[in-house]
Structures are given as C-alpha cells and as structure tokens.
Amino acid sequence: xxxxxxxxxxxxxxxxxxxxxxxxxxxxxxxxxxxxxxxxxxxxxxxxxxxxxxxxxxxxxxxxxxxxxxxxxxxxxxxxxxxxxxxxxxxxxxxxxxxxxxxxxxxxxxxxxxxxxxxxxxxxxxxxxxxxxxxxxxxxxxxxxxxxxxxxxxxxxxxxxxxxxxxxxxxxxxxxxxxxxxxxxxxxxxxxxxxxxxxxxxxxxxxxxxxxxxxxxxxxxxxxxxxx
Length: 228
Description:
Residues 40-130 form the Methyltransferase type domain. Helices cover 30% and strands 21% of the residues.
C-alpha cells in the first residue's frame, strides 16, 4: 500500500492546510523541546517532525509500522534511527527525554496501555507531546449529523486526563487549534490563511472545550518541572 501521509503528498500535507497544521504543531513541539538528549517519535512516519527536529537533537529514533514510510525517512536522513513495528508490542530498552506522537493517537485503541508504555519509556524529567482530537468540539458534534461519518473512537479531554492520571502522567500545557471550517477538498484554498488569522486574532487556541484538535504536553507526576 502506498504511503500517502508524506510531507510531499499534495493530497495530504503539501498544501495550504497541511502547512498550516505543520506550523502549529511544530511551534508547539519546539516550545516543549527543552534539554532534549534523545527522542522517540511514535508512529513518526517518513520523518515529518523527526527530520527538522534533528537540527536540535542528534539522537532521534522513529518507530512506525509502515516500511515504506521508514524507507523514505532513511533516504532523507540516514542519521535518524528507525524501528519497524507496532509500538505496543516492540520491546524498547532505552528511556527518552522527549516522546512525540502527532496525528496518530487514534491508532491505539487501548489508551491506558498506551500511556502506561509512554510512562515506562519517559525519563523522570522528560516530556511527552501528543495530539488529541476533541470529540466534544463544534466540528465533531456537527459530524454526528452525517450518518456515514467514520468514528475514530476518540476520548474527550477529561477522559484523557483520567487515563493520564491512572498512568502517573500529568498535563503541563494544552493548546487548541484547527478551527478551519473547510472540507478537505478545499485544502489548498486561500481561505485557509484567512481562517488561520481569525483563529489567532480571537485567541481560539485558548478555547479548549471547542478546539477541534488539542496539542498536549505531559510529564511524570513526580517531575520537578512544576517547581522550576
């Protein structure tokens, strides 16, 4: 099966909407990317984030189940380590000061087991950044009107908080985005930039209950991050 989620694919990321999403996600990641010694990108694909982050950290590993995605990554940056396999079943010896999982959380059906493994791989003072879809937002409430819509089984933010707490993880920062009210068929419309400006002007990123997507940074409960 052809890997369609590559940064060069015009249907998915190489368009105005894709560039808008990448900018928001990458800015948030960099804001949390402090004192990183090593990093694991979970379901990192062909290196959409791993490659640019390699200028800030020279010890990055990407794990993904898709061999074509990893081949693309290795052809672009041979210094990034790769692991082919299912994150939930592959044994990983190392601990990491930064873990990342962007636009892939819905691939893991058992959130408790997923966060438990994240905790086991995270350094005591490390950070984990992930993206969560908000099923309580205006966009996903509107989707319920479509009987043919695909249900990804996303958890609400309160359910995510509870799952994190059960696995001794605590939220450090949340930021909302992706208020673009356009169908994917208009991913290259000039209106993408217009709505991105409106999102910024009206501080919609702070309206977490209605933000369609949420960028979340977490640390271990016993981390001293909050005391700094």
